[in-house]
Amino acid sequence: MTNARANPVGASAPVWTKLRFDAQQASQNEAALASYLNATVLNHETFADALSYQLAQKAGGPDMNALAIREICEEAYRADPSIVAAAERDLQAVLDRDPATRSTLQPFLFFKGFLALQTHRIGHWLWGEGRETLAFFLQSRKSELYAVDIHPAAPIGSGVFIDHATGVVIGETARVGNDVSMLHGVTLGGTGKVYTDRHPKIGNGVLLGAGSKVLGNITVGDEARVGSGSVVLSDVPARCSVAGVPAKPVGGACMKPAQTMDQKFDMGL
Asked: Whose CA is closest to 202, among 229, 167, 244, 242?
């Protein structure tokens, strides 16, 4: 007798199952990529194994080879399996929110936002273990590879989608909640030379539009929406839409903006 609760009718397949299926299909359709897809996906037994390999192949270089980085990733995943669970939620978030995504292979193999975020998660684990120099090494490699600069001290929730990713900057004392979506050019930065808590706190389900700047030790509440090109200098209430320089409330609330990716503001004109 099958366990209906473990695999209910109509339920989405787990991310790893989807990824293997997509890799098998792509391997059959594009023979030139068969060896590459075997190495990155099909030769691995678990999602964690494949992700460790992929991140290491990207980040490895003359200063630290891919094998050494892969061992660090594997160590982090063994010590804290929640990092892998977060990565699975991140990958699913891309599938759910990016209409340009054709399969799980695109973000897993090619998307800068997903790969930069997973590299950051390893660096953040290293930071928590007191291995700060190695964490900074990965931060530097991430910045070189993906044009994304996230301080390893910054905690980031799961189900996070960083679209296009180029130019994203997240400071040391920033915090990012679960199910957040942000586009390229977003800055979560400080002001002045305060050495203590100086960066924004982003709630759950927030949408940060392209090029938006959120500056200082302020809070953006759950399911708030920040318009593209805005400069946010003060707290944003939950489920509030803001835009402008400096940003002000505008256009009314948008339900679950990070999921809908709705960046069109009703100005009431």
From this structure: 242
Q: Does domain 154-269 have CATH number 2.160.10.10?
A: yes
Quote the CA–CA distance of 184 and 126 in Å, as a whole number: 26
CB 174 within 8 A of CB 190: no
Task: Give percent above pLDDT 70 in the chain.
Answer: 94
pLDDT at 254: 77
**Three-class DSSP category at 69:** helix
pLDDT at position 1 is 35
Which 8-state DSSP code applies to residue 33?
Answer: G
Q: Tokens standing for 241?
A: 């839409």
For 14-146, give the CATH class: mainly alpha
Domain ranges for the chain: 14-146, 154-269
pTM for the predicted model, two decimal places = 0.92
How confident is the model at residue 4, as a pLDDT? Answer: 39
Separation CA 220–CA 8 (nearest Å): 37
Mean pLDDT for all residues in the chain: 93
Select from 179, 177, 12 the least CA-distant residue to 104.
Answer: 12
Which of 121, 136, 7, 118 shows the shortest CA–CA distance to 58? 118
Residue 143 is encoded by which pair of tokens? 């910045």
For residues 198 and 98, what is the distance between their CA atoms, to the nearest angstrom? 31
